[in-house]
Every structure is written in structure tokens, then in C-alpha cells.
Amino acid sequence: PRVSRSSALASKATGYPIARVAAKIAIGRRLDEIPNRVTGKTLASFEPALDYCVVKIPRWPFDKFALGDRDVGSQMKATGEVMAIDRCFEAALQKAVRSLEFGKRTLLWEDSRWSKGEVDSYPLHPNDLRVWAITAALRRGATPEELSQRTGIDPWFIYKFQNIVDMERRLLSEPLKPELLWQAKRLGFSDEQIGTLADRLPEQLRRIRHEWHICPVYKMVDTCAAEFEAETPYFYSTYEKENEAEPLEGRKAVVIGSGPIRIGQG
């Protein structure tokens, strides 16, 4: 057994302690002899069950190396990565895109210099702008079936992008009401994104959201999809009703992350 960067990511995504289990196997223990500390009831042979979606996006350095070849192929070009967790793909994707820390570049972003021809051609070529190009093409009337056929991307993913674009259109055209705001937050829209589309300042939007009692809750990454009772300090935020995070007693400390993983950190 061995532990690599990929297995560290898998461990983070599932809550399964791969490094600890690999060390136990290395000294001769079997999977059915290693207890799962998260649940206290299952063994390491119990396959992790997920009731959430994880999205990983590479972090390319083309904001610093603007003249570099942006096409993505078999050669390693990413200098880091981000990972986001939520209940659905749309929300996890939007979290991950914001976590890339390209300024304020959310999925609403489009390069003002893009011509119609570029918007039509960009989705065809794997590069660091493909996510935004697909969204831009959908805004201009391209259909998921058409984009799937032209790009070779499974239509399931394109339809998820379409769900995000459809919500953008609703926020632009419909009055902002509690149900609409709730649905937008469920799809991963930030207060700033919703404010931009609904013509509100982020501070106003946040105040309205609190008045309507639309607040995030925290769900546990427990390796068993809540099938067993679990105890782990690993949570993700989402917009649902039930909160699984119990307040701790005594003094608390907040550790601020440094953003997306990049080469040279550590």
C-alpha cells in the first residue's frame, strides 16, 4: 500500500482515512481488523458511502503566464487544484470555481473581448477557459445536446450547466422572492452573484436572506451517508433544513485556509 497526492484527495473527498489504513496494512493488519474511527461501528473494509457531490478543478497559472499555451493535453500544466463539496453538482461546481481565486471570476464571468466565433469555438478545445466558454455558449442559445455532440462531453454535465444558466435568467427576469432565493442558494449562487443578477448590493442581499431565514447549515462527511452515528470534525456548508454541526463547548479557534493548493506551498 502507498499514499500519494491522489489518495490524499480521495481521503479528503470521502472522509476515509486512507493514510492510517495503509499504515495498518503495511504492518500486517487486514481490512476487516481495522476499525473505522469515524463511525466506531464499521471496519476499514466497509466501502465509503457518499450523500454529497465533490468537484475538483485544476488551478492553472495562466493568470501569471498569459502567453503560455492554454490548451490542455497529456502534459502537466496545472500548478494546483481546488476541491468543493455540496449536495448537488451545480453547487459544488460553483463553490470550486470561486475557490480558484481568479479575482472575482465566478461562472457569471465572460471575457468582454470574446467574439461570437470564439464563444462557438472555445468549448471545442480543452483549455482552462472551457468551463466559462460552455456557460457563455448556453447563454447565447446553444443547447446541451448540441454542445455534447460537438465537445464529446457527457450531456449529464452540460445539463447541469444549463440548470445554472436557467437560474441566472430567472434571477434577471423574476422578482426576488424567498422561494427563488432559496433555489438559487441550493444551486450554489453566492450573495454577490445573486446581487449582480437581481440588482442588489451583496450587503442588501445578505440582510434580506437573513430576514427570510435562508441560512446555510453544515453537513458531516461521515463515510457512511448517515447510515450510522458518526463523530468527525469535517463538515461542508449547504442550504437545507437540518444542521448536523453541534456547537463545541469552551473557547473556539478559526483556522483560515490559504486558498487553492499551489506548487511552492508548504
Report on the structure:
By secondary structure, the protein is mostly helical. The protein has a domain at 1-106 and 219-266: ATP-grasp fold, B domain (D-amino Acid Aminotransferase, Chain A, domain 1), CATH 3.30.470. It has helices at residues 5-14, 18-26, 89-99, 116-121, 130-139, 144-151, 155-173, 178-186, 191-198, 202-211; strands at residues 53-59, 80-86, 217-220, 235-238, 261-262. A 3-stranded antiparallel beta sheet has the order 1-2-5. It is globular, with a radius of gyration of 21 Å. The relative contact order is 0.14. The mean pLDDT is 86.
How would you sum up this structure in a few lines?
It contains ten helices and five strands, in the order H-H-E-E-H-H-H-H-H-H-H-H-E-E-E. It is mainly alpha-helical. It has a domain at 1-106 and 219-266: D-amino Acid Aminotransferase, Chain A, domain 1 (2-Layer Sandwich).
Features:
mainly alpha, single chain, 3-stranded antiparallel β-sheet, D-amino Acid Aminotransferase, Chain A, domain 1, 266 residues, 38% helix, 10 helices
Strand and helix layout:
Elements: H1 5-14, H2 18-26, E1 53-59, E2 80-86, H3 89-99, H4 116-121, H5 130-139, H6 144-151, H7 155-173, H8 178-186, H9 191-198, H10 202-211, E3 217-220, E4 235-238, E5 261-262
Antiparallel strand pairs: 1-2, 2-5, 3-4
Helix pairs in contact: 5-7, 6-7, 9-10
